[in-house]
Design a protein that fits this description.
The complex is a heterodimer. Chain A has 13 helices and 18 strands. Chain A is α+β, with helices and mostly antiparallel strands. Chain A has an eight-stranded antiparallel β-sheet with strand order 2-1-4-5-6-7-8-9. Chain A has a six-stranded mixed β-sheet with strand order 10-15-16-3-17-18. In chain A, strands 11, 12, 13 and 14 form a four-stranded antiparallel β-sheet that branches. In chain A, helix 7 crosses helix 8 and helix 8 packs antiparallel against helix 9. By secondary structure, chain B is an alpha/beta fold. Chain B has nine helices and four strands; from the N terminus they run E-H-E-H-E-H-E-H-H-H-H-H-H. Chain B has a four-stranded parallel β-sheet with strand order 2-1-3-4, with helices on both faces. In chain B, helix 1 links the parallel strand 1 and strand 2. The chains are: A alpha+beta, B alpha/beta. Chains A and B meet through helix 10 and helix 13 of A and helix 2 and helix 8 of B.
C-alpha cells in the first residue's frame, strides 16, 4: 500500500491540512505539541472505527469535544486518504473519504465515500456512498467494460449510523474495493512499544505472526523465527549478527521454553558463561532487538507508524536504523516516523521530511523539498539533521 | 606514522574505509574516523580539529563528496582551510569522491554483486554509464535503482567495500584516494 495524500479537517490541531505526494518513508519533525502524535492517531482512529464503531472510537478519545478542532464543534470532521491499491488485479488510485458529525450528542457518519477511476480517463466513480447508515454500493466492480450506467448498485442499510460501510460491506467478497481497503486498515501497525511489557517470560501457547503493538509478544515472535523453518531461521540469524555489531558484548540471543510452559529470551554476553535473561537486559538492547524483529518481518505491514524510534538507543545506531525503515518501506510497507533526533534525521532524504508548525492554535505542514534554501544546501552535501539543528527549517523551533 | 585520521562527512564513508583500509595500510598504522554531519559541519570544524590536535605522529585524510559543486573548487577550498591551520608536523591529504561515494561502487560492479548478493551486474561494467562512473550525476540513486532499493548507504557500504578491487576500479576518484593514502603511509 502507498498512501499518496492525506487531508484532514477539524481533527484536533489539524483544522485544515493536506499532505500530498507522500513518500514511502515519511519522517515528521516538530516541536512538542505541534501534533506529531495526533497525525499518527488518525491511523489508529480509523482502525478503531473499523474494528469497533465510530461512536466507541470517538468515546475512547475523550468524546467529540476532545476530537474536533476547538471553535469548530458544529462542523464535520473530515479524514480523506488517497492511496494506491490493487483491486481486481489492477493498481488503482483510490480515495476514501470519511466525514463525521455530532448530532444530539451522538457521533454519526455524515458521509463515507470510496471512489476510484475505472479507467485511465474519466471522472472517479463512487463505489461506496453512504450517509447516516444508508447508501449505495456497486456490486459488479469486475466488469470494467460496462459503462457507469450499467453498473449494478445495491441500496444497503447499515445497522447503525455510526458503523462504517467498509465494515458492514467489507466482509462480503462481492464488494472488492471495500473488502481490500478493510483488510488493509486491519493490518496497519501503529507502534506503541513498551519495554516493560516486552520483558519477562511469556505464555508459550499461541502463535505470533507479527510483533504486537505494545511488543508484549517479543518472545513468541523470536521463537517463531527461531524454530519455524530454515528460511525464518536465516532471518533470525541475520538479526543476531546485526545485534552483535550494535550492542557491545552481545554474542547471541536464544528463545528458551521454561518447564512451566513459558518462553523467555536468553542474551549471551561473550565475556561470561551464563546468559542474562531478558528481564535483566538493558532497555536499549531490548528495543533494538524488537525493532530488528519488526523491520525484518518477512511480511511487512502495509502501514507502519513509529514515534521517536531514537529513544533509548545510542545515536550512532540511528543512521542505519533509518535505512532499515526505508528498506521496510521499499519492501512494500509504507513507514511514518516522528523524531526529535538529528542523528536519525541525518540519514533521511529531502523528499522524505516534513515538519509541523503551529499558527494561531492550529498546525500547518511544511515540506523540506519545497524549501529552496534547504534543497540548495542538500545538493551541496549537507544533512537534514544538521540543517534542522542549526535553524534552517523555517518556523520549526518553539518561538 | 602510527595513526591515520580520517575526517569524513558521513557514516557511510567510514563503513567504506573500514572495508578497504585493511588491504592498504601497513601493519603499524591504525585508522581513526571522525564523522561530521555533512559538508558545512566538516568545513566549519576542520581548522579547529587540526589546530588543536595533540597526539603526535599522525596524518590526516579529508574526504568529502563532490555532490553538485565544482570538484576543483571544493578541493581547493578544503586545502586552503587545512593550510590556515597548518602546523607543519601534520601531513594532510584532501580527496573528493566524484560525485558521491557510490561512484566507487559503480566503478566495480562485481564487488556490488558479491557484497549485496545480487547477480547480473558485473556484465554492465562496460556499458557507457559505468565505464566512467565519476561522470554520473547521482551515483547513489543510480546504485539504488540498479539494486532495486537493496542498497542503503551504511549497510550497503559495509557489505560492498571488502570486495572492492584496489587496482581495477573504473572510478578515477577512488584510484586517486587509494594512491593518496598509500603515499601518506609510505612517506612515513
Amino acid at each position: 500500500m502507498q498512501i499518496e495524500s492525506i487531508r484532514l479537517k477539524n481533527f484536533k490541531v489539524f483544522q485544515d491540512i493536506t499532505l500530498s505526494d507522500i513518500p514511502p518513508f515519511c519522517v515528521i519533525v516538530g516541536a512538542n505539541g505541534t501534533g506529531k502524535s495526533t497525525l499518527f492517531q488518525v491511523f489508529g482512529f480509523l482502525k478503531d472505527c473499523l474494528t469497533y464503531n465510530v461512536g466507541a472510537a470517538v468515546q475512547s478519545r475523550g468524546g467529540w469535544h476532545e476530537l474536533v478542532s476547538r471553535g469548530h464543534e458544529h462542523e464535520h470532521i473530515l479524514i480523506e486518504l488517497q492511496f494506491r491499491l490493487e483491486i481486481s488485479k489492477v493498481q488503482r488510485l483510490v480515495t476514501y473519504s470519511l466525514e463525521l458529525a455530532s448530532r444530539d450528542n451522538r457521533v454519526a457518519v455524515a458521509r463515507e465515500i470510496l471512489r476510484y477511476k475505472r479507467g485511465a480517463s474519466g471522472s472517479p466513480y463512487h463505489f461506496i456512498d453512504f450517509a447516516f447508515g444508508q447508501g449505495k454500493a456497486v456490486v459488479n466492480e469486475d466488469d470494467f467494460n460496462k459503462t457507469e450506467e450499467e453498473l449494478t448498485k445495491e441500496a444497503q442499510n447499515l445497522d447503525k449510523p455510526d458503523i462504517l460501510a467498509i465494515k458492514g460491506l467489507g466482509q462480503f467478497q462481492k464488494f472488492k474495493a471495500a473488502n481490500a481497503f478493510r483488510q488493509l486498515i486491519e493490518n496497519w501497525h501503529v507502534s506503541d512499544f513498551h519495554i516493560n511489557l516486552a520483558r519477562g517470560s511469556k505464555d508459550a501457547a499461541g502463535y505470533a505472526d507479527h510483533l504486537s503493538v505494545s511488543g508484549d509478544n517479543l518472545q513468541l515472535v523470536a521463537n517463531r523465527l527461531y524454530t519455524e523453518s530454515t528460511q525464518s531461521r536465516g532471518i533470525f540469524d541475520k538479526i543476531i549478527e546485526l545485534m552483535k555489531k550494535r550492542v557491545p558484548g552481545i554474542s547471541g540471543i536464544e528463545p528458551e521454553p521454561t518447564k512451566d510452559g513459558r518462553l523467555l529470551l536468553k542474551f549471551q554476553d561473550g565475556s561470561f558463561k551464563d546468559p542474562f535473561i531478558d528481564k535483566y537486559v538493558s532497555d536499549g538492547t531490548i528495543k533494538m532487538f524488537a525493532y530488528l524483529l519488526l523491520l525484518h518481518d518477512p511480511a511487512p505491514h502495509p502501514l507502519l507508524c513509529v514515534e521517536e524510534p531514537e529513544n533509548q538507543l545510542y545515536p550512532k545506531l540511528l543512521w542505519e536504523l533509518a535505512e532499515e525503515f526505508r528498506g521496510y518501506a521499499n519492501r512494500g510497507g509504507q513507514v511514518f516516523v516522528s523524531t526529535h533526533s538529528p542523528d536519525f534525521l541525518n540519514a533521511t532524504r529531502i523528499e522524505e521530511v516534513f515538519w509541523l508548525v503551529k499558527q494561531d492554535g492550529f498546525t500547518q505542514v511544511r515540506r523540506a523539498r519545497d524549501d529552496e534554501q534547504l534543497a540548495a544546501y542538500m545538493a551541496e552535501g549537507d544533512q537534514m539533521g544538521y540543517l534542522w539543528k542549526h535553524g534552517f527549517f523555517p518556523e520549526v523551533d518553539p518561538q | 606514522m602510527r595513526r591515520l585520521i580520517f575526517l569524513l562527512e558521513e557514516p557511510s564513508a567510514e563503513a567504506m574505509l573500514r572495508g578497504v583500509l585493511p588491504r592498504i595500510l601497513p601493519e603499524d598504522c591504525s585508522p581513526e574516523f571522525k564523522v561530521f554531519e555533512g559538508k558545512q559541519d566538516l568545513e566549519r570544524r576542520l581548522t579547529r580539529v587540526l589546530k588543536a590536535w595533540r597526539t603526535p605522529d599522525c596524518a590526516f585524510v579529508v574526504l568529502r563528496d563532490q555532490d553538485s559543486g565544482d570538484c576543483h573548487r571544493i578541493k581547493h577550498r578544503l586545502v586552503e582551510l587545512c593550510r590556515q591551520s597548518w602546523r607543519g608536523d601534520l601531513p594532510v591529504v584532501v580527496r573528493i569522491a566524484c560525485r558521491e561515494l557510490e561512484s566507487f561502487y559503480l566503478g566495480d560492479l562485481s564487488a556490488v554483486e558479491q557484497g549485496l548478493g545480487v547477480s547480473g551486474l558485473a556484465g554492465k561494467q562496460d556499458s557507457r554509464k559505468f565505464r566512467e562512473p565519476d561522470k554520473l550525476g547521482s551515483p547513489s540513486r543510480e546504485l539504488e535503482r540498479l539494486t532495486n532499493g537493496l542498497y542503503g548507504k551504511v549497510a550497503g557500504s559495509r557489505a560492498i567495500a571488502p570486495h572492492l578491487s584496489l587496482n581495477d576500479n573504473r572510478s578515477h576518484s577512488f584510484r586517486v584516494l587509494v594512491a593518496g593514502i598509500r603515499k601518506l603511509t609510505e612517506a612515513s
